[in-house]
Structures are given as structure tokens and as C-alpha cells.
Amino acid sequence: MKTGTREAMVLSEVLRTNACMVDHNNLYLNSCQDQQLRSILERQQRHTLDSFQRMVQMMQSHGMDTSKIPMPTALTMATGGQSTQFTTGAQMTAQPYSTGQYASGSMYTTGTAGMSTSMNPQMTGQTGMQTTAINDKMIAEGALLFHKCGADTTTRAALESSEPHLRNALTNMARNCIEMSYEIYNYMSQRGWYQLPETPQNFISHSATQQQYPPQ
């Protein structure tokens, strides 16, 4: 596959993932009750949108067609549904994500502030089926999974890209996804929403010697 075609394919997949992430974050923000979680999501949303615009700009500067790439709803509404073109003279280097006051090691307020008691745990839709109301724990879980998916997608895209500028930008995007996922993890861990399983007491660990010389 020629250089350029391969980059266009992997970048399109990265931007599709980012657009989906932005749209879901908008849904999360509409339902988020905890102000701490809302602050994290808003900061991450701004960074993701900025990264999306920079990557589209880089594609356009390399002569790639971006008209088929789905745009986040926020950008589509801002441009009236028209194809978005970004100024090629602006800075295109991916910026590192900063967690701000929620850096690793910072403490979050514990308790149930994010679990609104006014939320009906079950709602009946038009189909008559019961659905569970979304809460802050679900939102954090979804955001964490999106960042993990983003890190995986952008890492694979960087491995498939041979153009130096695009590869570096994708590498930075992957690193930023990792930082954002770690920020969400710290938030969830402090609230007791992300607990690792304890090692079973009867867990058997096979040493290298046992693996090399199995019992006869």
C-alpha cells in the first residue's frame, strides 16, 4: 500500500473514534452530577476537540481528503453542517494533556456526592422496557473505556504511519489518551469505583524451573 493511502485510512479511523468520543462526552456532561467529574470531562473534552481539529488540519496540509470524516456534533453545529476547513498556518503540533489540579496523586472527595439521590434508578421508555438511569459511576466507566480505546487506536495508527510528522502527532495523541485514562482511573479509585481483585489464597504460581522441567 502506498504511503499516503495507508495514512489516510488510519487517520480516518482515529478521527472517527475521536468524533464518537466527543459526542458521547456531551451526553455524559448533560447527565453528570458530580462537579469534580464534570470539571475533568470538560477539560478532557476541550483537549479532545483541539486534537481533532489539529489532526484534520494536518491531513489537509498533506493533501488528504477530509470531506468523508464524520465531524463531532459540536463542530457540525458550529459550521452549519458544512465541510470544515482549518487554517493551515496555525500550530499543528499535538499539545500534551495536562491534568491540572487533578494530577496523579491528588485526592478526590470521597462519598456519594456523585450519586444523585434524586435520580430515578429506573425509567420506563416508550417501548415499555425498563432502563437504568445513568449515574456518575457509569459515566466515569464509559469515559475510561473511551480513552483506553483511543490509546489503542492511535498507537496502532502510529505504528502504521511512515510519515514522520503524522507519526509523531499520533504518538502524542496516544500518550494523551493514556494520561486522560489515568486521570479518570485516579478519580474512580479514590471513590472506590475501581478496585482491583485480591490475589486468591490458593493461587498457584509456577516458577521458571517448574515450567522448564514439568513433572513426569
TrEMBL record:
Keyword list, A-Z: Sporulation
Superkingdom to which the source organism belongs: Bacteria
Keyword tRNA processing in annotation: no
Signal peptide boundaries: none
Principal location class: other
Swiss-Prot/TrEMBL GO biological process terms: sporulation resulting in formation of a cellular spore
Pfam annotation, one family: Coat_F
Transmembrane residue ranges: none
Tagged with keyword Endoplasmic reticulum: no
InterPro entries in UniProt: Ferritin-like, Spore_coat_CotF-like
Localisation: Spore coat
Annotated family: Belongs to the CotF family.
The protein's name: Coat F domain-containing protein
Organism expressing this protein natively: Desulfotruncus arcticus DSM 17038
